[in-house]
Design a protein that fits this description.
Largest sheet: 6 strands, antiparallel
Radius of gyration: 37 Å
Number of helices: 5
């Protein structure tokens, strides 16, 4: 019930604005004003009129006067003198100078004799301009209000869609507006207050919708460029019980290192050595972002030139989980038996290959 009352009150206010705008508002019209207000209130007391959009006089089929104001439009005003000359000369379209709103350039476009299906009406459009610098596939969403000045009232009437829709501008649709802004016969009737002394005034306010929300595009890259890396670790068996890391290498914009614990991290200590792939720049990821990675780690048999390899479980790397691999990569005892991994040298040749990695970019 409360919601119905709110709708009824809102519709009542709109109807009064429309009806009063259709009157010649001179100083001796106070009784006429009062009568209109009373009629509106009586009509709106009928439940069946709740939610019905009222269209009176100059209001187009799918638009409505939502308010009136004394202040000029905030973004652009177009005043036309000698309007009749525009009609006589059959000026089909007039484009205003550029104005800026929401970081974009715009023009107000008037069609004195109507555009396309809007014959016998004035048509008014808002066009986005200078789009050459925008990226491929650009889109701009905007809301706008059209204004028509009524000299008799000394106020601007605002006209917009009944639903406060967002207009989607893109490369194939750079102009939006109203084909049937005002019937020409009613607009050109001087007693209505819109065309006085052959002059008229239009305006627009454009509000770019920037809060489109964030998003991302993700793809999986198989066998990424520079996905393989080798690392020569000298004097491996004599290294102490701590972590050693390789130099950094880059795969798909991200920096990585190989990490090894010669004495291992498991229990018992010194039985295995541990080997990991480690993400270095996890702090540069977007909050909560994770990288999907398929990888394998290996070491070279110096007798056969064949790599002993272990394939890791598919892993999600992040700022808080930046290292994945094997606590028990290989038995240290098998290294000592000279199975080809430390032949005539104390250097161990380690390797890693990133086979698949997720590629994330900001949604544009």
């Amino acid at each position: 019930m409360e919601r119905d009352n709110e709708k009824r009150s809102s519709a009542c206010e709109q109807l009064m604005v429309i009806c009063l705008g259709r009157l010649s508002m001179k100083s001796n019209d106070m009784d006429q004003r009062a009568l209109v207000k009373e009629v509106v209130r009586v009509l709106m007391s009928k439940r069946e009129l709740v939610g019905v959009v009222v269209r009176v006089g100059m209001i187009p089929k799918t638009k409505t006067v939502t308010a009136s104001q004394a202040a000029a439009p905030a973004h652009y005003t177009l005043k036309i003198k000698s309007y009749s000359t525009f009609v006589e000369k059959k000026i089909e379209r007039y484009e205003s100078s550029l104005f800026e709103s929401g970081g974009h350039k715009w023009r107000l476009c008037l069609y004195p004799s109507g555009r396309q299906h809007g014959k016998n009406h004035l048509s008014l459009y808002v066009a986005i301009a200078e789009t050459e610098s925008l990226p491929a596939g650009w889109e701009v969403f905007a809301r706008f209000k059209m204004f028509v000045f009524n000299k008799e009232e000394d106020e601007y009437y605002t006209i917009r869609e009944e639903e406060d829709r967002e207009w989607r501008y893109h490369d194939l649709k750079k102009e939006w507006g109203f084909e049937e802004l005002i019937p020409r016969d009613e607009f050109e009737d001087e007693s209505n207050g819109y065309l006085v002394d052959d002059c008229c005034v239009f305006g627009v306010e454009v509000f770019v919708v920037n809060n489109r929300g964030k998003g991302e595009t993700v793809s999986l890259i198989q066998d990424p460029m520079d996905g393989a890396f080798t690392w020569d670790v000298g004097c491996f068996l004599s290294l102490s019980d701590c972590e050693y890391t390789s130099s950094q290498f880059t795969v798909d914009r991200h920096k990585w290192v190989l990490s090894v614990y010669p004495q291992g991290v498991g229990t018992p200590r010194g039985k295995y050595f541990s080997f990991y792939l480690k993400l270095c720049d996890g702090g540069n990821l977007a909050p909560g972002q994770k990288l999907y990675v398929e990888y394998k780690l290996g070491m070279k048999n110096q007798l056969t030139n064949v790599y002993y390899e272990r394939e890791g479980d598919p892993a999600w790397f992040s700022a808080s989980s930046n290292s994945h691999g094997f606590d028990n990569f290989f038995l240290r005892e098998d290294l000592k038996l000279s199975n080809g991994y430390l032949v005539n040298t104390s250097t161990l040749y380690l390797a890693a290959q990133i086979k698949v990695i997720s590629h994330v970019t900001e949604l544009s």
